[in-house]
């Protein structure tokens, strides 16, 4: 069957299926005549397995390790359960912090400063709160960071290295937001000395439109994630 039919049967987008293929999780055979991918029932079962594991919050890297035989399903599930327990503890700590802020009557941004020492003391005692860099992850996801990295020959190395992965996300967000904004700022304060000045402004304007569109996607993505969590 073609990818469109597979998408309908599985209830996921075509881009998701292609992403799984780029990550090496599935390998559908191409039709010799049409050159299109031909998805079999076995391929659909593999994708169903991936979907179930992803619903558990399991990373692409862990699923790859399972398929490669580097780790058993039981080991991966145990590891994921530990990660979820840790995440649950962070959520509980964050909820408790919200409740404390409300009970203490902290209703403004300025009053949040009074909780900084409390958070620092709690973290010294081993309490873990939601990471401050979570928004960076949401932005990178909204800007199709995963899809871009998946197309790179060294993409797997970036994904499996926490330092490179975070650096890649930061660089991608910087490239799509701060670089064009900086160029736009320079373009606005600079006085064009040639006849191409209007063209430069037009290019910067289009670039800014793209950036704001991406930011809107990011905000929408964050809202969707929060809605699903609620």
UniProtKB/TrEMBL annotation:
GO terms for molecular function: DNA binding; DNA-binding transcription factor activity. The chain crosses the membrane at residues 172-189, 201-219. The keyword Cell inner membrane does not apply. CDD domains: HTH_MerR-like (cd00592). Keywords: DNA-binding, Membrane, Repressor, Transcription, Transcription regulation, Transmembrane, Transmembrane helix. PANTHER family: MERR-FAMILY TRANSCRIPTIONAL REGULATOR, REDOX-CYCLING DRUG-SENSING TRANSCRIPTIONAL ACTIVATOR SOXR. This is DNA-binding transcriptional regulator, MerR family. It comes from Pseudobutyrivibrio xylanivorans.
